[in-house]
Automatic annotation (TrEMBL):
Similarity comment text for this entry: Belongs to the CRISPR-associated endoribonuclease Cas2 protein family.
Taxonomic lineage from the root: Bacteria, Pseudomonadati, Pseudomonadota, Alphaproteobacteria, Acetobacterales
Keyword field: Antiviral defense, Endonuclease, Hydrolase, Magnesium, Metal-binding, Nuclease
Species the sequence originates in: Bombella intestini
Protein name in UniProt: CRISPR-associated endoribonuclease Cas2
Domain of life according to the entry: Bacteria
Length: 109
């Protein structure tokens, strides 16, 4: 496949894991560490994202996520194109030093 034909895709992992007991907290931390070690970047505390070159790459990482699933809680995966990911808007109250607000504003009716 030529470089100009390469399609970049983003894999977004959302999760809600219980953390009431020490074992649950350990399992949640192990899952977050797994995601980080597998090349995912934390977008928000329970939202991690990873870019891949094509569907085969995302399928490989989805298989890895399935093997690392904690026993409790819920995990969701969403795949988007590079163009769709690039259209993401960041909306913040007070921006942190590492984040910025785009020039476009969203109007809620």
């Amino acid at each position: 496949m030529k470089a100009e034909e390469t399609r970049f895709l983003w894999l977004i992992i959302f999760f809600d894991l219980p953390v009431r007991t020490k074992i649950q907290r350990r399992q949640a931390a192990q899952f977050r560490n797994f995601l980080r070690d597998d090349g995912f970047i934390m977008l928000q505390y329970s939202v991690y994202v990873r870019v891949g070159r094509g569907q085969d790459s995302l399928d490989k990482h989805l298989r890895r996520v399935r093997t690392a699933l904690p026993k409790e809680g819920s995990v969701r995966a969403l795949q988007v194109t590079d163009k769709q990911y690039g259209r993401m808007e960041i909306m913040l109250g007070l921006a942190k030093k590492t984040e910025g607000i785009g020039t476009k504003q969203m109007v809620l009716l």
